[in-house]
Amino acid sequence: MDWELFWSSLWPIVRGGLLGTIPLSIASFALGLVIALLVALARISGIRPLSAIARFYVSVIRGTPLLVQLFVIFYGLPSVGLLIEPWPSAVIAFSLNVGGYAAEVIRAAILSVPKGQWEAGHTIGMSSTTTLRRIILPQAARVSVPPLSNTFISLVKDTSLASLILVTELFREAEKIAAFSQQFLLLYMEAALVYWVFCLVLSTAQSRIEKRLDRYVAH
Amino acid sequence: MSPTDPPIGPPHVSPAGASAVPSSPRDLLLEVAGLSKSFGDHEVLQSIDFTLERGKVLVLIGPSGSGKTTVLRSLNGLEQPDGGTISVDDGALALDFSKPISKGQRLALRDRSAMVFQHYNLFPHLTVLENITEGPRIVQKRPRAEVEAEGIALLGRVGLAEKRDAYPFELSGGQQQRVGIVRALALRPELLLFDEPTSSLDPELVGDVLTVMKELADEGWTMVVVTHELVFARQVADEVLFLDGGVIVERGAPEQVFTAPTQERTKQFLNRLLFPL
Comparing C-alpha atoms, which of B194, B209, B201 is closest to residue B117? Predict the structure, then answer.
């Protein structure tokens, strides 16, 4: 094994992770959560057209491959005159994707909060919006953290697809060095190793957050 | 209430307990007439009428499904009747449910009262003190320091001062329900509503909650209580309504309803409660 190549390529790959993969994941996840919350509320709203649109969106996102969504936005839209740069294309595709999956998680979490909590909020004089914000969502957050953490970890790995639309991130750095050195196995294994370390860190963070949110629950 | 206790009492009673505010001979807080509600074909309430004077305690009894909880929830705007009227403060606020009710009217009705639930419905993600101050702080926009001081004082009165920073799951059912009562009191309502407040409690914890409720009644709070606790009802109620099948079958002073019921259905119900076997 070419250890020299391994060590000399480690920093470029890690840097691709720190400057590409991580910011891309965080931006897409943050935007995706906003989309997801709006879609979840649309589905719960009971307003027919709204909830139908939301259901359609979730169905399309979950029923089509992420790679296809990414290609439609980056390679497809230019043919109707919509030219979007690689980075924004990736953020749009990933956040729409997260939105579709996380919407169902958030919807289920909101519905899991007992009806009595809504009534208690109303009875102390809160509007439905205030009750949602101060009473329901904090409780729903606790329920949805484990599945949403999994969504985030999947997203970190899925951002490797962005290398196919020319975004400079972890995997694209590895590919470039691999193409140049012809050491495919070494470089791809190295990329895998870096992804794995990233995800280990995230899992640790996940269990810390879960512990923190569990402080008001009987064990 | 000792002289050192904070001045937190029912709105019309002065802190010293003296009747500084003269009450008119007929100081009507609540007037309910012809209240009705259906779920589909099922009529849960048919023409419910009653009045409640300030400082009095009304107890609703009856079998499950009799409509007593629906009456209580209607008074707090959690349930919307299909017909009838609810009038508060000698008509200062009047809701006619045969017409569409505006959101503002419903909120105004809710502002007058505070509810204590059978299953406590405390906010599990907030501490005891946060549970109590949430409404006054967020909805009534009162200053945090004032609201917290009042909350701590109220907690002291129900014997839970040291639990202010606990989460609800750390409390027994009886303690949770006392917090539920304090949460209602902290809103400074004119009317306290209790929906079977002791029905989820272990028998040995019921007394703590009933004691607090009795003290509130003695202080002059106006209360509507749905309960199966007949001894409590007899001691505390000024009037008892027996509901069955969505109608008021019998009403009167507790001695009359409990010792000399005139209706067959009332007798059967009381017998079942007193002699379940």
Answer: B194
d(CA B56, CA B219): 10
Closest-CA residue of chain A to B114? A123
Which structural domains are found in chain B, ordered by start? 28-274 (3.40.50.300)
Instruction: Please list the pLDDT of chain A residue by residue as tens digits (219 residues).
Output: 789 999 999 999 999 999 999 999 999 999 999 999 999 999 998 899 999 999 999 999 999 999 999 999 999 999 999 999 999 999 999 999 999 999 999 999 999 999 999 999 999 999 999 999 999 999 999 899 999 999 999 999 999 999 999 999 999 999 999 999 999 999 999 999 999 999 999 999 999 988 888 777 765
- Across the interface, whether the CB atoms of A125 and B123 are under 8 A apart is answered no
b/e burial code for range A58-69 (CB count within 10 A of at least 16 → b): beebeeeebeeb
Give Cα B95 distance to the centre of its chain.
19
Give how far B259 is from chain A: nearest CA, Å: 36
The strand pairing partners of B95, in sequence order, are B86
Q: Rounded distance, CA B106 to CA B80, Å? A: 9
Q: A134 touching B, CB under 8 A?
A: yes
Q: Are A57 and A149 in contact (CB under 8 A)?
A: no
CATH topology of domain A3-216: MetI-like fold (1.10.3720)
Q: What is the DSSP letter of A132?
A: I
For this complex, say whether ipTM is above 0.90.
no
Q: Token pair of B259, please?
A: 């010792």
Residue with tokens 């306290």: B192
Question: Of B76, B107, B124, which is closest to A139 when you measure between CB atoms?
Answer: B124
For residue B163, give both structure tokens: 């639990």
Distance CA A206, CA A137 (A): 19
Count the alpha carbons within 13 Å of A77 in the hemisphere toward its beta carbon: 16
Can you tell me the distance from the alpha carbon of A161 to that of A157, in angstroms, rounded to the nearest whole number?
8
